[in-house]
Amino acid sequence: MTAVQQPLGEFDLIDRYFARSVGVRADVILGVGDDAALLRMPPDTELVAAVDAVVAGRHFPFDCDPRSIGHRALAVNLSDMAAMGATPAWATMSLTLPSADEAWLQGFSAGLFALADAHEVALVGGDTTAGPLTISIQILGHVEAGTALRRGGAAAGDLLAVTGTLGDAGAGLALVTGRLDARDRAAADAMIERFDYPTPRVRFGRAARGLASAAMDLSDGLVGDLPKLARASGLAAQVDVERLPLSPALQSLASPQQAREWALAAGDDYELLVAVPPQRWDALAQVARGLNLKLTTIGELRPGNGVRWMLGGQLFAAPEHGFDHFR
Ligand code: ADP
Ligand code: MG
């Protein structure tokens, strides 16, 4: 006799996939199950809060592996903590699902909790509704009072640097949507991995406090994001486009122009952009080396406003804007 599969109800779904009692942090006084969570802040810290939603068909293709969707939904929020130099600690999640598909929920929660565990983040509450697939996670963290990295702290003469490599996620998305030919399978898989499983630079962000003068994460592409940091700091920026760090895999798959365009404008890289006073560069580079993370200077901040992109000593017409939902 075959058992009849009862559709999973809202509360069973939460219990089965999201109410984990293992690995919960000691500072979670009350987690999933009550009307709200109770969390204990470490002394002398500031609460750091951010929220980011990911929407099917908007931030990822509809047929994306649910494991990567779970990873991404948290990763984009961890990246905001990284950009502030904060320690992520807790998350709440508003989950809107078309249906309670158990195979999907299993993959999704596995991807979410694998990344949560790696960063010792506890899911402490949420909300579950039926509707078009949207995952909105609020991340909560803390930072020693007065030490958070901001966008507005840079000074003229500070160097601009980025972690990792840029443009990989753009290539990954182009590969999964059939706009780029996977002529080198290993390179293509590496790029798809970079799109599906972005790596938030949380450790680097924390270690950059006291060294970097300003920071932000690159979610919309350098052409969209750098002007925000420059404006917040009341400065102009100049970038040498040939210095943008491109991975060997990206260079093997795309023309130099295409690689450059993705590095500038595709977004989804979740690397950090930092400003650093020249006298603190060596110390910050040392931090990056200690984390086995590439850190590349790409330009500098100057008095004035706006961003000048240079290529081969000439002004370069960069793509007009990065990713913008309403454009
Ligand atoms: P309320 O109606 O009081 O807002 P719910 O009945 O919606 O609470 O949720 C029950 C409990 O489950 C709450 O503690 C809530 O935080 C938690 N919860 C609901 N959905 C999720 C989810 N997707 N992930 C984690 N916790 C959730
Ligand atoms: Mg309630």
Describe the protein's architecture and organization:
The chain is α+β, with helices and mostly antiparallel strands. Helices cover 33% and strands 26% of the residues. It contains 10 helices and 13 strands. It has helices spanning 10-17, 66-84, 102-118, 168-176, 185-196, 202-207, 222-233, 248-253, 256-265, 281-290, and strands at 28-30, 38-39, 45-55, 87-97, 122-130, 134-144, 159-163, 214-218, 236-240, 271-276, 295-302, 306-311, 314-315. Strand 1 and strand 2 (38-39) form a beta hairpin. It is globular and about 65 Å long. Bound molecules: adenosine-5'-diphosphate and magnesium ion. Adenosine-5'-diphosphate (ADP) binds at residues 14, 18, 32-35, 93, 95, 123, 125-128. Adenosine-5'-diphosphate (ADP) binds next to strand 4 and strand 5.
Q: What is the helical fraction, as a range of percent?
A: 25-40%
Q: Tell me, what is the CATH class of the largest domain?
A: Alpha Beta
Q: Do you know the CATH architecture of the largest domain?
A: Alpha-Beta Complex
Give the overall form: globular
Question: Would you count the extended β strands for me?
Answer: 13
Radius of gyration based on Cα positions: 21 Å
Write out the strand line-up for the largest beta sheet, numbering strands in chain order.
8-10-7-11-9-12-13
* Tally of domains: 2
Beta content comes to 25-35%
- Summing up helix and strand content along with how strands pair, one would put the structural category as alpha+beta
SSE string, helices as H and strands as E: HEEEHEHEEEHHHEHEHHEHEEE
Average pLDDT taken over every residue:
95
CATH homologous superfamily label of the largest domain: PurM-like C-terminal domain
CATH topology of the largest domain: Phosphoribosyl-aminoimidazole Synthetase, Chain A, domain 2
Low-confidence stretches: none
Give the biggest sheet: 7 strands, mixed
Cα-to-Cα separation, first versus last residue:
55 Å
Per DSSP, the total helix count is 10
Small-molecule binders = adenosine-5'-diphosphate, magnesium ion
